[in-house]
């Protein structure tokens, strides 16, 4: 596909994240991007997305379901930003459809390891399609800079990765779908697959076993939906052991609005240490030999970003990278693969299971077909 050719997008699920994708794609219109259709059964979401598209002078076609959108044949690329529990069926319908569509699917890929595996297997039969998973935190400028420092060998062999996310509670979503594990996969799948993906990148290794402790201690305890109280945890510690001997630790708190930074990342190698801070967009790194006085501080930025949005420009960059891969016509793989998506979900599932069973859980255990 030549750079001058128009690439037509459809968005499946136009709640908060779907509309965020719509705005990002509008900022790529100079690259030949146009959104031509949307699908969502929720009328208020349809209306908000339609008004947004009209403000961009995009006359989008509106469908109530994804199958109608697929059958319309109107688009080349699909963004799947519907609720987590709908991803599996939508992706299978896309992958089994006669028309080829490239896909960006929001994280998590699916809510279970078994469903992720089925999607990955189906995608292997469609070499005409690129499927990218929306693990866009790797593109946040300070995180991307720290990845570059780590991969450049500045810190030596990575031994420890610590990620702290101290933030606000989950936002209100359509019909409160995100209040229940059955819909989301659990907090450590829904939210933390981002951080497990980053740990794999920093460690340059795959996870072996997971130990976690977490609970619902503050948030959502006084909420009731259809007679049910939410069961999503609001804080946790997770320790992950990797196959190269590295260790990762996640510190999650979702009642910590009084934080200067939402994410703080520390990567320690055998010769140095690096840190990234979001949203301050600061990166620090130093060596054991130079000590504290030798620590360097950088302000991370990416001049390509035209829209910061909800995720500090990372959603814009993930769209830009997928567009480049599409235009390379298969010469370039999607930057975030289905295997990346599957393993990030498996790590979250293992952590949720560890809390439930109060024991270490091996990744092999959750990847075993019999336990999926």
UniProtKB/TrEMBL annotation:
Pfam families, sorted: GFO_IDH_MocA, GFO_IDH_MocA_C
Coiled coil: none
Domain Gfo/Idh/MocA-like oxidoreductase C-terminal positions: 148-361
InterPro entries the UniProt entry points to: Gfo-Idh-MocA_inositol_DH (IPR050424), Gfo/Idh/MocA-like_OxRdtase_C (IPR004104), Gfo/Idh/MocA-like_OxRdtase_N (IPR000683), NAD(P)-bd_dom_sf (IPR036291)
Gfo/Idh/MocA-like oxidoreductase N-terminal domain: residues covered: 8-134
Highest taxon of the lineage: Eukaryota
This protein's name: Inositol 2-dehydrogenase
Protein's organism: Hibiscus sabdariffa (roselle)
Phylogenetic placement of the source organism: Eukaryota, Viridiplantae, Streptophyta, Embryophyta, Tracheophyta
């Amino acid at each position: 596909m030549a750079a001058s050719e128009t690439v037509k997008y459809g968005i499946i699920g136009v709640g908060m994240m779907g509309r965020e994708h719509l705005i990002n794609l509008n900022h790529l219109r100079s690259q030949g991007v146009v959104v031509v259709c949307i699908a969502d059964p929720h009328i208020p979401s349809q209306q908000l997305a339609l008004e947004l598209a009209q403000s961009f002078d995009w006359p989008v076609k509106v469908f109530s379901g994804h199958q109608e959108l697929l059958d319309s044949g109107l688009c080349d690329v699909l963004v799947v930003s519907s609720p987590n529990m709908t991803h599996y069926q939508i992706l299978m319908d896309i992958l089994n459809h006669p028309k080829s569509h490239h896909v960006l699917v929001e994280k998590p890929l699916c809510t279970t390891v078994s469903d992720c595996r089925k999607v990955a297997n189906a995608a292997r039969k469609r070499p005409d399609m690129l499927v990218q998973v929306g693990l866009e935190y790797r593109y946040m400028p300070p995180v991307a800079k720290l990845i570059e420092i780590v991969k450049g060998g500045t810190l030596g062999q990575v031994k420890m990765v610590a990620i702290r996310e101290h933030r606000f509670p989950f936002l209100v979503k359509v019909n409160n779908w995100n209040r229940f594990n059955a819909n989301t996969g659990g907090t450590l799948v829904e939210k933390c697959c981002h951080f497990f993906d980053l740990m794999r990148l920093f460690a340059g290794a795959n996870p072996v076993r997971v130990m976690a402790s977490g609970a619902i201690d503050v948030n959502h305890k006084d909420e009731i939906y259809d007679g049910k109280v939410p069961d999503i945890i609001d804080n946790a510690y997770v320790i992950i052991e990797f196959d190269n001997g590295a260790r990762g630790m996640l510190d999650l708190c979702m009642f910590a609005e009084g934080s200067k930074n939402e994410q703080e990342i520390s990567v320690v190698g055998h010769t140095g240490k690096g840190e990234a801070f979001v949203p301050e967009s600061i990166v620090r790194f130093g060596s054991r030999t130079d000590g504290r006085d030798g620590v360097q501080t950088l302000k991370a930025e990416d001049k390509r970003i035209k829209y910061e949005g909800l995720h500090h420009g990372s959603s814009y960059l993930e769209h830009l990278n997928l567009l480049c891969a599409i235009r390379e016509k298969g010469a370039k793989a999607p930057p975030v693969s289905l295997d990346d998506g599957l393993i990030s979900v498996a790590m979250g599932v293992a952590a949720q299971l560890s809390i439930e069973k109060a024991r270490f859980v091996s990744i092999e255990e959750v990847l075993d077909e019999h336990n999926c």
